Amino acid sequence: MSITEDLQQLRQDAKENRNDFMLGNGKGDPKDNLTRQRPGAAKILTFNDCKNLYASNGIVKNIIDIIPEDMTRAGWTLKTENKEVKKAIESKWRQLKTKDKFRKLFADDRLYGDGYISVGAISNSVDNGANLTQAIDMEKLKKVPYLNAFSAQKVSRFYTNEDMFSANYGEVEQFEISRRSRIGSQIMSVGGMSDTTQEIVHQSRILHQQSLRFEDEPDGRSVLEGLYDIIIVMDTSLWSVGQILYDYAFKVFKSPKVDNMTKKDKAEIGMLMDFKFRTEALALIGGDEELKKESTPTTGMKDLLDYGWDYLSGVVRMPKSVLRGQEAGTLTGAQYDVMNYYARVSSMQENQLRPHLEYLTRLLMCCDDDAGPKIDPDTFEWAIEFNPLWSVDSKTDAEIRKLTADADKIYIDSGVVDPEEVYDTRFGRFGVENTSKFNADSLEEIDEIAKKVLEAYNANRLVAMAKRMPITRYPHNVERAYAKNMLRLTQQIADIVLYEFDSNIAPEINSRNIRFDGYIVDSIFQKSLDRIKALTLGIFTAKEKYSIASKFVRASNSTAKTQFVNQMEVAGVDPTKTEPWLNDYMDEAIAENVSYIGSIGDEYNAKTEQIILRGAKEGRSSQEIRDELVDQIGMTENKAKFIARDQTGSLFGGLTTMRHKKAGIPGFMWSDSGDSRVRPKHVEYNGQYFSYDDPNAPIPGKDYACRCVAIPEFDPSKIPEYIAA
């Protein structure tokens, strides 16, 4: 048989007899993407492309799922002194299944380029609750019954703020959603048909996550687009390894009789020998025949696969161990690459997950009937803390503890710290618990030991406590927030006054067509002055004044309470849990500050009227009068700042003093603000101790605009009155 005939026969045999288990998968044919790679050519993936890659490729599934799972796996807690709010909010988080919803949000963002969660908001106002185009009104919010995560397939388009001079540049303002208007039972009742409508939804009702978006492109980009080439390479390498293993070992049978065999004979003897040699290890062949086993060389295969994994790991920015599915959250030894990975996940929690969580938490706090009683989130201190992402194994933990103990011993021997400080830091205030080996016969000995321990503890407690006692700090942030709210109202009425003056009063003055006697001037300008008064009343409403005053008083109380609790915990004193005096005290403070806020508007109106009428009667120019009005704005703003500083010091000092007295603290140490504005007398007081039992003792914050504070002192021997006694 000629060579040409042999080739023809080989082609025919391949067509008829090929039984390749991976036949038809497109590897290496003209449709194989690997044969058409072009450097720098972008790969745009459709929604279905992403879905099919995720469904069919395990590596892709890990790339998409692992980071969202690590971001949400350990969960988060609400840090606040208000235990009732903490318990209610965390319970509501669990009811809403926030961990699962946010995991789906970030998985969709990575897979499709955009992730969405719809926020169910039930309002006390029917119009606000049912009208999805309106923003959620937190003042009228009643309940948030559900969160639903959904993919970009249900979003037709969204409207983004493209004004680069806007504070909200790049943010989505409205979404156009494809919404099914019937639920499953309704669809079945009408013959399997559902209505899909396009609805506009305000951005406050949807949590939108979009990590990668190019300018002038509305939709986000899937992370798979940048990884497509290496994914194809890894997929092809897997197929190649499978093919090599499939053909790893094959047998070669040499015989001079083969040349004279027909195609049918070859097929029969091939099947027979393949069956025999799969089940039997013995072969009987003639002297001129040869049977041997050939294997595929695999030298260098591991290096090639490692290169692929290293490249994929670098592009995805995930360690190979994590990418391959190592147990999450546990580290052994010096796995610095995994530590760096968890540091990256932690930064994603802070920058991407935290804003969504804080917005949801603020909604829950504002609900009338959901996560506990309604509470203004701006009136007390709270924060969301993410739980640790990883921990070391037992062996590594023991090694770390030994190294720490060695370092502590060096510090103690060098006199850097005391053993008591190390004890408190490593084991807590009461130390670790160990099982006692004493029996009933040694009770008297135990009592004697306990007495000596107590005496030694009381002797050293005050000294150690003084080193750790948190100092009382003046609440500058509360003062600034209070001043800012009052200045906002001041600026609004200033704008009204200048607008009314420029539009109506200045033209009359400039025309000089009027007699400047008292009657004529009053009658001409009275309409403008009346309008100014009416508009001012619309700004300084009773509701607005009460809102500003109540927020200030509650914020002052929250700050004072937090500092007091921290100091009491260091002192080993259980702070008062119930404060029956507090409500009346705060109500009086709110009423007092409502009066102060109202006085700003009243005084400004009176000064404005006086400046305009006096200037017109004296024949001054409109510009001169306007300049004086502008000067008056500055004086009014200074008054607002003074009220904020004076009331902050007074209220904070009063709350601190009241709590100290109720807790039985004998006295305090005076601490000034340490700047040039401190009164000379208060500079003298700084560092001195005063008794709360002394009716003539000065109290920080009592003098006008005083920013000094009281640091509690538990040792009676330091207080002058007790020394004299």
Automatic annotation (TrEMBL):
Pfam families: Phage_Mu_F, Phage_portal_3. Residues 52-409 form the Anti-CBASS protein Acb1-like N-terminal domain. Residues 14-37 are annotated as: Disordered. Coiled coil: none annotated. Residues 610-711 form the Phage head morphogenesis domain. It comes from the Bacteria. This is Uncharacterized protein. It comes from Listeria grandensis FSL F6-0971.
